[in-house]
Amino acid sequence: FRICSYRKSERKSSRLRPKKVYRCNVMTQPGETLQYSAADHVKALNDHMEQPFIDTILINNEEIPDEIKSKYAKELARPVDFNVEKLKSMGLEVIRDQIITYKNGVIRHDTHKVASLLVDLLRD
Q1: If you count Cβ atoms within 10 Å of the first and of the last residue's Cβ in the chain, which end, N or C, has fewer?
Q2: Maximum distance among all Cα pairs of the chain, rounded to whole angstroms
Q3: pLDDT, tens digit, for every residue of 44-89?
Q4: Sign of the CA dihedral 58, 62, 68, 73?
């Protein structure tokens, strides 16, 4: 996600830089991000871009029900570790909120909640 937000006084600046927001996965993905923490995800993205570029990370703060975790465990997936202090030490603004929903026993990001949080960032 990219968020472009600027105040009137900044509109004339040629140095305007959009805020980059990363909505982190809630569960690891077998064969791709097994054992990855949120910090590992950010590091991989920064390495790919050859520089740190993410300003804000949006992470889930809601406990995932055991029955859902068990279902994912059969596929070797587990909840992503969101070590907030580690993320802050990487220079990230951390936004924690309940950003997930469940559909047919599958975790999905709550698109309405995520959109609302992104709009709030635009207003800041």
Answers
A1: C
A2: 54
A3: 999 999 999 999 999 999 999 999 999 999 999 999 999 999 999 9
A4: positive
Q: What residues contact 95, with CB distance under 8 A and at least 6 apart? A: 56, 57, 58, 59, 117, 121
Q: Which two tokens stand for residue 79?
A: 């909840």
Phi and psi based region of residue 2 (left: phi greater than 0; alpha: psi -120 to 50; beta: remaining): beta
Bridge pairing between strands 19-23 and 56-60 = parallel
- CA 112 – CA 40 distance, rounded (Å): 26
- Cα–Cα distance, 76 to 29 (Å, whole number): 8
Q: At residue 57, what is the residue type?
A: I
| Chain centroid offset of residue 70 CA | 23
Catalogue the E-assigned strands of the chain.
2-3, 19-23, 56-60, 93-97, 100-103, 106-109
pLDDT in tens, 2-15: 444 444 444 444 45
